[in-house]
Amino acid sequence: MPFLFTPYVLDDILHPMIRIRPMIEADLAAVLAIEQACFSRAWTREHFLAELGSERGRPAVAELSGRVAGYLCLTVLLDEAEVLNLAVDPALQRSGIGAALLGWACDEAARQGAGLLRLEVRTTSAPAIALYKRFGFVRSGLRKAYYELGVDALLMDKYLVEEDVDAV
Ligand SMILES: CC(C)(COP(=O)(O)OP(=O)(O)OC[C@H]1O[C@@H](n2cnc3c(N)ncnc32)[C@H](O)[C@@H]1OP(=O)(O)O)[C@@H](O)C(=O)NCCC(=O)NCCS
Hints:
The chain is α+β, with helices and mostly antiparallel strands. The protein is built from five helices and seven strands. It has a seven-stranded mixed beta sheet, with helices on both faces. Mean pLDDT is 90; it is low at 1-10. The structure holds coenzyme A. Coenzyme A (COA) binds next to β4, α4 and α5.
């Protein structure tokens, strides 16, 4: 039997007001405000519109008391999925929203048939790396000077379905 690890269940209990739903165009003003507050090289409206219009795209927002508090852009192609973007309103960070979004992404990727979830993260983004490690992502590579100011990209992977070793 496949075993799906869903560590964010605890956050759901602690934060029942966090609701994950598909991103829509009307969310983009709030999403762009968070994006610009979080990243020096921010995605533009066109980047998000491309995800909204993509067949593979699964962009989602986290709502807290009815307001957009964070978002995650997931893309799924056959048996692989990737987290393209994740950010939480700086005023609301460290309250379980990032974990709720990432937990949703793991479940959604598995529901879409992906066995592997990948992502890239700045080696300087200690909070994000801590979050990914907590969810069981492991280092799979490094891209030197991939980001602005020569910052390296850490590549991380998480297998979503445990192999049934007896069946191999
Ligand atoms: C990374 C980010 C999305 C985390 O969102 P968040 O809502 O603050 O995270 P959560 O409150 O759900 O934290 C979940 C876990 O992540 C880790 N974590 C989150 N922030 C952390 C911090 N500042 N320092 C250390 N660990 C942290 C912890 O393991 C935490 O669990 P704990 O609170 O039980 O210790 C948020 O910090 C953010 O938007 N950062 C700027 C954008 C960014 O770097 N995005 C990632 C791009 S790859």
